[in-house]
Amino acid sequence: MITAEQRSMNKMPYFASYGEDDRKTALTASAAVTGTAGNKGNTLSKSKGPVEKTTEETVGQPFVDAPRMTCRDVNVWYGDKQAIMDVNIDIGKNQVLAMIGPSGCGKSTFLRCLNRMNDTIPVCRVTGDIILDKLNIYDKNIDVVPLRAQVGMVFQKPNPFPKSIYDNIAYGPKIHGLVNNRTELDEVVEYSLTKAGLWDEVKDRLDQRILQH
């Protein structure tokens, strides 16, 4: 279980990592962020000021001997406003990493860098290197579709596709080739909705679009 440690962060995200042996290593990445990294409708919220560098000493060890993912000198801009600066951190195999910080400090902006979801924001620009399994995910030859299948993201708020209830549940198993036919897919959908406690509520309207008003 990940527990949050409360500490003063000076608008800077706080990182806590957990290895396989359940030892806790708390660390702060070498990053400074603005107070408004978030955006809505591809527009940047008005910045409260320039990027602030922190003098707070890193706690723990942000680098590991055999990382699964490495981030070096990662910077993100929304237009001419810099959202995060010089993030350098390793993520080890089977490691759970928590980023803890105030709203708008750049946590989600950084997470979106890890599977190039920031590519979908026209005003966003990312520099630096993010290496996953020895490949730079920002290489021009990288196909973002399998990358995003490998590096998923669960959003704070539900983000269903504008499709039916059935298609939303079936989407993941279908694109990952986890089922061989419609019968198996039906079983996965029923099982998933049952485990979520929703089957009895929606079983008679699986073809209804989720975003239907």
UniProtKB/TrEMBL annotation:
UniProt organism field: Candidatus Electrothrix marina
UniProt GO BP: phosphate ion transmembrane transport
Domain of life: Bacteria
InterPro entries assigned to the protein according to its UniProt record, in alphabetical order: ABC_transporter-like_ATP-bd, P-loop_NTPase, PstB-like
GO cellular component, one term: membrane
PANTHER family per record: ABC TRANSPORTER I FAMILY MEMBER 17
Name this protein carries in UniProt: ABC transporter
Residues covered by the ABC transporter domain: 85-208
GO molecular function: ATP binding; ATP hydrolysis activity; phosphate transmembrane transporter activity
Cleaved signal peptide residues: none
Enzyme Commission number(s) of this protein: 3.6.3.27
SUPFAM superfamilies: P-loop containing nucleoside triphosphate hydrolases
Keywords assigned: Hydrolase, Phosphate transport, Transport
Disordered: annotated span: 38-57
